[in-house]
User: What shape does this take?
Amino acid sequence: MSSLPVQGAQVVSRVASLLRIVGRKPEGSPLVELVRESGLTRPTVHRLLSSLASEGLLDQDPQGGNWVLGPEILLLGSVASARFPLEDIARPSLRRLAEETGESAFFSIRRGNETVCLLREEGSFPVRSFVLHEGVRFPLGVASAGTAIMAFLPAEEQEDLLSDWPAHAGSFAAGHTEALVRENLEATRQAGYAVNPGLILEGSWGMGAAVFDQRGRPAWALSLTGIEPRFREDRRPQLGRLLMDEAHRISTQLQGTR
Assistant: This one.
């Protein structure tokens, strides 16, 4: 009997992992990708997917065969949004950033040791970077949002992540060495905003600023992404100020909610 809670917790962990993987992209994921990303066997993944589909949490696209989020997720999300009025608070800032800069603006949340993109507002500049969109996850310290958040965590939390950096960064470790990440974190603390100089995709730059919760901890981030020429050195201070102003505006509003 003592093993039952562990087994139950394992099932929940596996289900949550599959939901997160499917939710990374609007078009969902094929079975082979879910098997590879989850590390589970094909029969196990298929069994869990079938169970989730029967509960309305997942659907299978009849044309492409990809697994996508189901209607029950929409219902759950609509209920959760009443508790976390992030759309109402963050959307005006995203619109101002997109309008004033012409770049695409994003709002991301910290979830454990990752950031998850929640909201996007497209800018007017016709050439865009498509590295970031709703549902995309990055390890903390990777991409401008994750760097902005990690830079203002307590030092011991940063060192916990850096102590086993290759495992934490995963496939991003090659382009984000520990030494480079430490340098970026220090530069972020000095400037107040983070800069990602094409480390995820060559030519695709980003900048981010942390948004703080009621305890004064970095829990969210605003970011801008675009092509490298749009983030030239003489323009970055202006973009950084705009990001920090809007991040402070959102932090103040969130800290005032109860």
